[in-house]
């Protein structure tokens, strides 16, 4: 019997780019990254306000490639800051759209993934899905304790790519994902380092507005007392501080760009500040990997470096030089997110997996104390 063919449009809005893919079953027929410079995104007061711009960007890109939307079977977007949920493929529904629009767990470009998928799919009368959103939460109770009783640690990370790449590496090692311990550092606009213990991400930094290494546009962990003093200095509104942590933090704050390629050019041209800051970002990633190795009690089968920054040869070398005593380091530059979105949708379209209904898979991030 001939295999049924599904054509899936996948949409991945990141903090510095919009990535789209069109897949005939697992086979990519188009994969495109549209990078957005800082000035373009800063025109918009919020992520939600970028909706029309990102939608037009996608439709223009598909039009340029001569792709006929009426041939699509489904649209699948990267899921955003919803309620904490278990991993899997979810059908986009009204409750999800509402939570994405208000940013139930915060603001991030991925909130637009489900919304854009829903809008494009509804006009075509086809289903819209999200897969492994950034709020996938598999933290162990011990990892939830922050040290400050009023605040619990949260799992907000590049779940889709971390899991997809981890599965791929486990396969390369001849083992199942559920059998291995891996540390995955996804280094995009934000940076997250996950401790994957036998198929579950038992600890990971909240890469949005919380903790961990600074990234191209995010501050990561900052000294708490000094941050509190800044908040109450009377010099800044709340939104200004949040913007300095997310969007204008990290490389943007120090060097005025979120583009690591530009930073590398600045370094080549002899810019000592750029050199120090770029090295500090690698240093902080290495430190976080060291912390994750302690979470796994040193039982680490491999360390994986992935995301856009993993293309940076010197950057990657500086990390490897500090962590290769822990385990072998495998570099997967870029990400597998478009493919992972298509595969998640396919599993449901083919009936291999049941679609999950949001928010019924939601589980409390149970306050442990
Ligand atoms: N060839 C490269 N060398 C160094 N850095 C790169 C390269 N390509 C992309 N990057 C950097 O990776 C970062 C974006 O990573 P990406 O995973 O695409 O982020 P996001 O999905 O969050 O938009 C940017 O700082 C970008 O400049
Ligand atoms: C919110 C965690 C995911 C994240 O930071 O994604 P980007 O690097 O694409 O901004």
From TrEMBL:
The keyword Translocase does not apply. SUPFAM superfamilies: Actin-like ATPase domain. Its EC number is 2.7.2.7. It catalyses: butanoate + ATP = butanoyl phosphate + ADP. Its main location: cytoplasm. It is found in: Cytoplasm. GO terms for cellular component: cytoplasm. Pfam families: Acetate_kinase. One of its GO terms (molecular function) is acetate kinase activity. It is an enzyme of class 2 (transferase). GO terms for biological process: acetate metabolic process. CDD domains: ASKHA_NBD_BK. The keyword tRNA processing does not apply. Keywords: ATP-binding, Cytoplasm, Kinase, Nucleotide-binding, Transferase. Belongs to the acetokinase family. PANTHER family: ACETATE KINASE, BUTYRATE KINASE 2-RELATED. This is Probable butyrate kinase. It comes from Parageobacillus thermoglucosidasius. The lineage of its organism: Bacteria, Bacillati, Bacillota, Bacilli, Bacillales.
């Amino acid at each position: 019997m001939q295999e049924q063919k599904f054509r899936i449009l996948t949409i991945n809005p990141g903090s510095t780019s919009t990535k789209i893919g069109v897949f005939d079953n697992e086979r990519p027929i188009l994969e495109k990254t549209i990078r957005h410079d800082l000035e373009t995104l800063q025109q918009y007061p919020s992520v939600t306000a970028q909706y029309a711009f990102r939608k037009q960007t996608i439709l223009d890109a598909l039009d340029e490639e001569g792709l006929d939307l009426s041939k699509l079977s489904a649209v699948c977007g990267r899921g955003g800051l919803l309620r904490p949920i278990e991993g899997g493929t979810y059908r986009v529904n009204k409750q999800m759209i509402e939570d994405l629009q208000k940013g139930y767990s915060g603001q991030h470009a991925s909130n637009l993934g489900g919304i854009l998928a829903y809008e494009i799919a509804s006009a075509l009368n086809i289903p819209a899905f999200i897969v492994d959103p950034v709020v996938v939460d598999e933290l162990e109770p011990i990892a939830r304790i922050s040290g400050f009783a009023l605040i619990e640690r949260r799992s907000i990370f590049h779940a889709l790519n971390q899991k997809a790449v981890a599965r791929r590496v486990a396969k390369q090692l001849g083992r199942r994902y559920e059998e291995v311990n891996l540390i995955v550092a996804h280094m995009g606009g934000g940076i997250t380092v996950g401790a994957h213990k036998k198929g579950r991400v038992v600890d990971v930094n909240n890469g949005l507005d919380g903790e961990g290494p600074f990234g191209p546009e995010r501050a990561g962990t900052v000294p708490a007392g000094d941050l509190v003093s800044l908040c109450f200095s009377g010099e800044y509104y709340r939104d200004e501080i949040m913007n300095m942590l997310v969007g204008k933090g990290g490389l943007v704050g120090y060097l005025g760009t979120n583009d690591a390629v530009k930073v590398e050019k600045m370094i080549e041209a002899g810019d000592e500040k750029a050199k120090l800051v770029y090295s500090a970002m690698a240093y902080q990633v290495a430190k976080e990997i060291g912390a994750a190795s302690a979470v796994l009690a040193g039982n680490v089968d491999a360390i994986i470096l992935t995301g856009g920054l993993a293309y940076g040869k010197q950057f990657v070398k500086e990390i490897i030089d500090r962590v290769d005593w822990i385990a072998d380091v495998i570099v997967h530059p870029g990400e597998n997110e478009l493919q992972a979105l298509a595969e998640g949708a396919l599993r449901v379209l083919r009936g291999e997996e049941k679609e999950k209904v949001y928010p019924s898979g939601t589980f409390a991030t149970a306050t442990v104390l």
